[in-house]
What we know:
Oligomer: single chain
Radius of gyration: 16 Å
Largest sheet: 6 strands, mixed
CATH superfamily: Peptide methionine sulphoxide reductase MsrA
Amino acid sequence: MLFSQQKVTMIDPARALRGRDHSVLKEPTFHEVFGIPVTSVPKGSEVIYLGLGCFWGAEKLYWNTPGVTNTASGYAGGFTPNPTYEEVCSARTGHAEVVKVVYDPSKTDVEQLLKVFFENHDPTTGMRQGNDIGTQYRSVIYTTTPAQLEAATKTRDAFQIEFTRAGYRAITTEIAPIEEFYYAEDYHQQYLDRNPFGYCPVHATGVTCNP
């Protein structure tokens, strides 16, 4: 992706694309790994939204994480309702690429999911991950409960110590309660299961922590 200042500057809400009133995901869409609707939240599960660069690799990372019961690729943190992928890539929606992570709190906890998050991308690079440059690739954590919000802040602070020790800059991860999540198009869902030779690596730094 060619670098441009527009790609790394958040759009003003008044200038964001208008979007549409219907989802770009065609239903019903069943999860290629879990075999349930990608929109499903199994009983007793909790949800958190995590953005760590390209959502193809991030979604695969989490569907392989023990205790996760469903995942979906989508967009959050911006201003355009029901955006298309092309619109998000234009940097005119304000959205980040995120994964909706549904998990069973009796089998894992949010701290473990956040550990996976911080260990599998570089949260210090602002509007980029690796060669992917743009506002949609920024590091984000969008929570659904006060406990998640507290855990995200504490985990970030613990990892900041380790990133600083390893010579990295300040963590730029955006942490906030979720406002709205929009599902991505069907062809993005579980992309690396359907296309096992597809290219979308996570960008682990080797920095680890047990907060």
